[in-house]
Amino acid sequence: MKEKKKKTGIDKEELAFCKRRGHKVSLSGGGWAQCSYCRMWLREVRKIEERSDEPPVKEMSSMEQCRRSLAEAKRISDDTK
Ligand SMILES: [Zn+2]
After folding, report:
1. Cα end-to-end distance, the chain, whole Å
2. What letter does residue 52 receive in the DSSP assignment?
3. Residue 32 C-alpha to ligand 1 middle, in angstroms?
4. Residue 15 Cα, ligand 1 centroid: separation in angstroms?
5. How many CB atoms lie within 10 A of CB 25?
6. Given 28, 50, 61, 72, which is the most exposed site by the fewest CB atoms within 10 A?
7. DSSP state at residue 34
8. Tens of pLDDT, residues 24-67
9. Residue 5 confidence (pLDDT)
10. Distance of CA 12 from the midpoint of ligand 1 (Å)
């Protein structure tokens, strides 16, 4: 007899459900935090990605966007001198 595979543990879909339910879990600090509504434990996993080409401006960090707009403003004012 073959056993049916049972889903064990927390899968990613369930975590998404928690978010979709509108549960606000404070995930600051990087440790596991328990949702007070559904008792689900959540943790934010930060992922670092790398790319050598320039990403779209809207995908840049706000700091980078600010730096770029300042550089652009400076370039324009230099051009009009
Ligand atoms: Zn929840």
Report:
1. 84
2. S
3. 13
4. 8
5. 19
6. 50
7. E
8. 877 777 788 888 888 888 888 888 999 999 999 888 888 899 99
9. 56
10. 13
